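Chapter review: from sequence to fold.
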Amino acid sequence: MEKKASFHAKLPNEDQWHEVYKKLGAEIKIRHYSPKTHKAYSIWTRKFQHFMKNKAPDLLTVEDVKAFLTSLAVESKVSASSQNQAFNALLFFFRHCLGREFGKVDGVVRAKRKPYIPVVLSRQEVDLIIGKLRYPYDLVVKFLYGCGLRLGECMNIRINNFNLDAGVLTIHDGKGKKDRTLPLPEVILPEIHRQFDAVRLLHRQDLDQGIAGAFMFDSIEKKYKNAGREFHWQWFFPAKDLTWVPDAGEYRRAHLHDRHVQKAIKSVVQRAQLTKRATAHTFRHSFASHLLQANYDIRTIQELLGHSDIRTTMIYTHTVKSRTIKKTKSPLDIDPSEMK
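The token string follows.
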């Protein structure tokens, strides 16, 4: 660590920060964190750099972090979740890029956590939106709502995530690097089979044209060089157009872009003139709330959503009406037989 510090000390501050960002990217890649995490951590690190007026990385202290986090709450008035994300980003930055531990971070003004109740669509509203969406966006929403998926999880589904014989879908490396298995909605099984046929046809065309196949994880690509050309590794929702990879000098097939799905949903919601603001994530909220309405156990819903903390799932108890009591009564007014 001393050698790294002395090496950095010889560089101008800008060059030191350039090295830090290279290190940040490498450390995130080693741990197989998502591109979104890389982007978020890079953004917060740059904001911290700007706040510290380009101070040399080796001279940064925990007190600097405290000042930055307090500034986010007091001056920038960021949400509690944003402040927590900034804290996690800087914790990673100090630990893995600077080789230093935080220690205690006391005395930070915490951003206020506002009570949040998610927007939930009725089943009729869900059906209305699906009915107005064109292929493949209608099928995407059926997975978002029918399986309670995050949009990123849905876009990353590959053919080998399905076990049609058992009627289940396995989500690999969801948020928090947790795998989970979900029941496939039986009502859309015919559409799933048709999508398999469409992907199979597109895959054959790609092979005939010499396309390098689907984009793959680096670890899989190194171990199985031709994995991207195998059918079971193809995206379930492939992009319409191919992507040119300059470094490799080849075309690859990516999955359908998140932004295209969001745009399609936004357009339909506006045309349907719904009074609610609905996004792709709204269907996941609706999935959880409708299961709760159907008297599913909260722990079961937690597992289906992939929440590590039951408190995250408990928020959906505020989106449905209580069925346990119609009117508040004094215990003296309740028939003893109702308490058994």
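Two observations follow directly from the output. Strands lie at 162-163, 168-171, 180-183, 243-245, 250-252. The CA atoms of residues 3 and 272 lie 63 Å apart.
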